[in-house]
Structures are given as structure tokens and as C-alpha cells.
Design goal:
about 180 residues; mainly alpha; 8 helices; about 55% helix; globular
Amino acid sequence: MQIAADTKIPQPVPKGLPLPSPGPESAAEARSGFTPAMSAEEIYAEYDFTAITPRQIDELADRLRDNGVYDFGTMMALETRGERFVQHMHDMLYEAGLIDTPEFGATTPMDLIEGFKARIEMSRRHGDPTAFHQRALDRIEELQRLSEARRAEPRSPVATTPVATPALTQSLFGLQTTAT
């Protein structure tokens, strides 16, 4: 094997010297070299967890994953209520003859917070552990508060009158004078 003369070979950091700082980004960003376009909070802020559809849950999970800002526990709690997972389970029940229709309502809004509360209560009644669902509920409630606060923030008004740029004005003026 031959190595080109201009190839840079990384040198180990001598003992006793600090490792180079990854910079201002997070440790995860430093490891992956990926900087998310949106934060998890910015993405979550676009959803109302008291009226969210299974399809929107999948969309939310995809956006979090695409931006590299998802937490495994939260994602697991969300994705098991998303369209893909629920449709798969529904298909299995339909094929087994346990339900009459293959459709389940992927666009029907549900209150995810109340769903978690009901799941926790059912687990308590049956003596099952509730810690995972309680953590998921706490996180979803926190995200709902953030989402509501973001939606309540005043928005800057959008200009309704077109603003002519000097170049546009000059172009339009040129067209007007040549047309006459």
C-alpha cells in the first residue's frame, strides 16, 4: 500500500494535553458533524397534543429524526401512537379476523395527553409499572405548554403592500418608456 506524499495523517494528542474542544455545538453535533435546522422545541411547538392525529404524530417523529433532535423514550412513546405503527397493528388484527375493517382513522384527532393519563390509570388498576408512561406524560405535557406559549407569542405583521425595489422600478420604467 502506498500513501501519497500530501496525505495528512492524524497525529495522536500527546499525554497530558487537553483534547481539542469540539466547539460551541453540542456533543452530539460534534460527533455526527450534523447541525439541526430546527430544535426539538421549535418542531414540537407546531403541534397541539390535545388534538393530534396519528398521521401528524408520524410527521412529527419524522421531522425530529430528520433534524437529529429526538429522544428515544419520547420517540417510542409517540411512534407507538402514530399512523404507521397503529395501521400495522390494525392490519394484523384484521387479518386475524378480530376486527371487521382495515381502516382505523389516521386523520382523526386525539388527545394524546388524556390517552397517556388513561394508560397510566389502567396500569395502576392492574398493578403494572407506570414509570415509563408517567415520564412520557410529563414530557408531553411540558411540550404542550411550550407549544401553547409559542403559539400565543405575538407574530410580526406580514407586509400586505408590495415593496418595489430600485431594480424592479427601473425595469418597469424601462418597459413603459419603450412601449410608447
